[in-house]
Amino acid sequence: MKRRLLVSVGALGVGLLFAGGWAAATALQSPAQREASATAPRSGPVTAQVTQGDLSRTITSEATLQRQTRQSLRFVAPDGPAVVTGRPLSSGQALLAGRALTEINGRPVFAIPGAFAFYRDLEQGISGPDVRQLQLGLTSAGLRVTTDGVFGESTEAAVAALYGRSGYSVPRGEGPSSGDETLQSPSNDEVASVPAPPSTPTAPSVIRLPRAELTVMSTSSAHVVSVPEVGSPILDSTLAVVEHGPMAAVAGVPAEVGSAIREGMKGSLSIGGGRRPVTVTAVIPNKGEAETSTRIELAGSTGELSESESGHEALLELEVEVVDRDSLLVPTVAVISGGSGSARVQKQTRQGSFVSIPVTEIGQLDGRSAVTATGREKLAPGDHVKVG
Length: 388
Fold this sequence. Notes:
The chain is of the alpha+beta class. It has helices at about 1-25, 30-40, 130-140, 155-165, 255-260; strands at about 45-50, 50-75, 85, 95, 100-105, 105-115, 120-125, 170-175, 205-210, 215, 220-225, 240-255, 265-270, 275-285, 295-300, 315-330, 335, 345-350, 355-365, 370-375, 385. It folds into 3 domains: about 50-55 and about 325-385, conserved putative lor/sdh protein from methanococcus maripaludis s2 fold (Beta Barrel), CATH 2.40.420; about 60-65 and about 245-320, Elongation Factor Tu (Ef-tu), domain 3, CATH 2.40.30.170; about 80-170 and about 205-235, no CATH class. It has a 6-stranded antiparallel barrel. A 4-stranded mixed sheet has the order 3-5-6-10, with helices on one face. Strands 7-9-8 form a 3-stranded antiparallel sheet, covered by helices on one side.
């Protein structure tokens, strides 16, 4: 037990002796030696790997799948308080000509295809472009009516059918008075007895279509995007949104990015675990906003974008600039320009040295260059070239 302890102490003493000798040697170094010891080792040349691919610029953006055209439908608030009382169509449902889009104060609001908002109530005997628009809309709704611009009997019958098939009573008002017969004074031969004065005739009830029960859309068939919920107050500024046309993807990008996008550019959408090819069909600057932006519309191949996906979000990747495809790619700083348009890169060998490779620089983009080796020495993906 004592021997082991002594051995341990002896070993410790040797260690301390060695450490003390090293410390003494260090303390006795000259200033030049200490400076040399503190200097970091000199680093070797910096290299980058040669790759192969397309030299192109791609932007990414969130996109929404929807039908190509969206339209806001405006409501006309009736006199007094107005509120949605029931039966609005849900998002995604079809809105056809002559169908009730919603119900306000217990009355329907029918969608009529046309080019302008109705500007007055319509009733028997009036005529004008608004009457003709109504007649054309009723025709689109499958109702028989004479399209002569005059609100006559056939128009009344078609309006009555429109309300009847939707389960609503026909709106009516008092028509022109029919008591316009001229009364004859009694002759001298008549008895002196004066008959009682005739009663005033009652004005007949006629169909009077309020403009508050009509809204105008630019097509005869659309799909609902949004409509005010039951209980929502209705003002003249209240809107419903519908969309129509083929399916498309719509994205918004900053104006400086949008300036580089052109119709016909190709891209892809990532949605539902897959990628679908799309083509830019429209580039529309959004003006008058605090931050200007650009709206991009993209169409897919037939069947690529499904109507059932309307409203879904997708990731858009769009190639906005292509310099060259399937090229050898190196950092632009690796390309050393020479006289008369010649260029070269320094390729690292297996031994760590460098050999000069003549190249043709096809183009540059975002700090990368597409090159082709022109000499006897080859350049291939996986090689390393000197960049610093």
